[in-house]
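@channel sequence for tomorrow's demo:
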Amino acid sequence: MKQDFKGQRIVVIGAGLSGQALVRFLLERGASVALSDQRTAERIPGIEQLQDLPVRLDLGGHNLELFEQADLIAVSPGVPLNCEPLKLAASLHIPLLGEIELAAREIERPIIGITGTNGKSTTTSLVGEVFRAWGKKVFVGGNLGTPLVEACGQDYDLLAVELSSFQLETIDRFHPRFGMLLNLSSDHLDRYPDLDSYYHAKLQLFRNMNASDYAILNADDPEVCRLTADLSPIKVWFSAQGKEIRGIRRVGDQLIWNWNGADTRMSLEQLQLSGEHNVENAMAALVPALLQGCPAELAWKAICSFAGLEHRMTLVRELKGVSWFNDSKGTNVGSVLKSLAGLQPPVTLIAGGKDKGGDYRPLRAQLEEKVRNLILIGEAAPRMAEELSGCCTIYRAASLEAAVKLARQMTASGGTVLLSPACSSFDMFENYQARGVEFTRLVEQLPAEEER
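structure tokens (generated this afternoon):
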């Protein structure tokens, strides 16, 4: 049932994809809507699509009077809750709700909420593949791309929703049927004061879940195990290390699903996705459908047919014996470690971008083992160079184009060039997709012969 916002003054803060979707969602429900963003119109993709709608645009800064007079603030996930207009609204006890919360209040079908530091997008996509193969109409979106509000009013059987920590900050009654926590490692310390605060935001996924719901958890991740010890939902575990758990585990080249008497085996030789992290993603993605009775053979066939997402360890080109991989979605240290783990030395690694405040030193061991040349770009380059000094040869490049040219010159046949930044893209690009597209374009344009 649609929510009635008729006559309510609502400010949407943040004019990205979710913010623009929120504007349309709220206008359809009778609200008086203003859209506020620090950016000017020229810097906001898609803003022209709102020009014929009755929305007040507050761009190039925030008019605090709008926030003081609002009945509700609808918060886009990219907007920090400690920014001045939201602190003002909170001090006046004006409700702050995010797009996920507002959408979920109208959705009656089961929601599979998927979070974690790494692997969210691949796992969410895999969940969608399984349920589609089973003949279900499934929404796949959230942080992955399509805002959840766009699912409202649609006839889905269930919804697979990728959830960032930012989105989980602004939930209230959001109640998924399945909550999936894939892993936890350092990220977004430019947004959170410490790691515990970041982890707490992730755990918001489970705040309204009860003993009839399911929590799908990584048994190999010590932080996940520690922080979920007291959860109410039924726990279903996955373990790539073969731990004896109730759920799904890897033993040799097989996955074994053990639940309520089932002892089902699936061969990993059929899996297209490479890397240990994708074994974990595949295991987690199987669980919701298996719990609901999907035949394991059908579910596994769907998983194995999936070739992967763009910008996530995508082989762009093999040139003169060198493999070039686009891993632009590797925006934190944990993700880079997983990507490097699947490669053989020698690797030329292109990294850097906007510094998110994390510790780069956990990269040192893998760099010493796998990476011969490290090319750093962007705002984070000076700090990365300092923290990683001595573990391989480090170079600086003024742009991604310069980094690609340098990598071409220094990487011999038999080597690999990997773009896996360990940073966000926002100092140089609109998003990680734009960074990945540009990297792919630059690599594809490299001449077959060295330019002299």
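heads up for whoever presents: The longest strand covers residues 371-377.
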